[in-house]
Amino acid sequence: MMSELIKIAYLYEDLMNTYGDSGDVKILSFLLKEKGYDTKVDNISLDMEFNAFDYDFLFFGGGQDFEQSVVATDIKRHRQTIQDYIEADKPMLCICGGYQFLGKYYETSGGQTIQCLDILPLHTVFKADSRMIGDTEYKTEWGTVKAFENHSGRTYFDDKSKLKPFGTMIEGYGNNPDEKQEGMRYKNVIGSYSHGPILKNENIARAIADKIIIAHKERVSSNIK
Ligand code: GLN
């Protein structure tokens, strides 16, 4: 039997890939291969056409402020397809700058406010006193995660009844220095400040790989009419 092809969209891979984030996609491809699936990863970059429902998984990595400002000018075109994909319970992992993009806006350390996708009720602000940088450790529903963070943005939820934190901090900052919470969960979306890459934490990687296989089976069966 031919191995089945899982399709992954890596949003702006050439611009959003700080601190080893592209390793997340490589780890997923490895785990999916173990389960009998080949993967095809498409870099969805500037000016490209994109329909999220052609994919079984969306990945959005971290970026520096300049790259985020470039992506912001292009990504608005894809707001609806990304929102529909998320609302349809499909899996997505967003790291740092990619996570910030799901919210309303991101204030850079240089004083610029970048308008983001405004899909989820969160926003990211800047305060001059410190950059959040260093090792992190936190508890999640799938067990402990150890990673690395490096961000100036402080993320806050605007509707705590809609979003859940991804983890509770043991070491490091996570979303901001005030709440001791790391990242965000909404449906099958995880947002996180964790680089390293985060999916070197096999517990999280395996949980996401399982969700991708479910999404893949749904996509393939909905294409057979
Ligand atoms: N530029 C953003 C910040 O500093 C995101 C950084 C990142 O993705 N590592 O908050």
TrEMBL record:
It catalyses: L-glutamine + H2O = L-glutamate + NH4(+); beta-D-GlcNAc-(1->4)-Mur2Ac(oyl-L-Ala-gamma-D-Glu-L-Lys-D-Ala-D-Ala)-di-trans,octa-cis-undecaprenyl diphosphate + L-glutamine + ATP + H2O = beta-D-GlcNAc-(1->4)-Mur2Ac(oyl-L-Ala-D-isoglutaminyl-L-Lys-D-Ala-D-Ala)-di-trans,octa-cis-undecaprenyl diphosphate + L-glutamate + ADP + phosphate + H(+). Keywords: Cell shape, Cell wall biogenesis/degradation, Glutamine amidotransferase, Hydrolase, Ligase, Peptidoglycan synthesis. The active site is at residues 96, 195. Forms a heterodimer with MurT. It comes from the Bacteria. HAMAP family: Lipid_II_synth_GatD. One of its GO terms (molecular function) is carbon-nitrogen ligase activity on lipid II. Belongs to the CobB/CobQ family. GatD subfamily. The lipid II isoglutaminyl synthase complex catalyzes the formation of alpha-D-isoglutamine in the cell wall lipid II stem peptide. The GatD subunit catalyzes the hydrolysis of glutamine to glutamate and ammonia. The resulting ammonia molecule is channeled to the active site of MurT. Pathway: Cell wall biogenesis; peptidoglycan biosynthesis. Its EC number is 6.3.5.13, 3.5.1.2. PROSITE patterns: GATASE_COBBQ. This is Lipid II isoglutaminyl synthase (glutamine-hydrolyzing) subunit GatD. One of its GO terms (biological process) is peptidoglycan biosynthetic process. Substrate binds at residue 131. Pfam families: GATase_3. Residues 7-201 form the CobB/CobQ-like glutamine amidotransferase domain. The gene is gatD. It comes from Companilactobacillus nuruki. InterPro entries: Class_I_gatase-like, CobQ_GATase1, GATase_3, Lipid_II_synth_GatD.
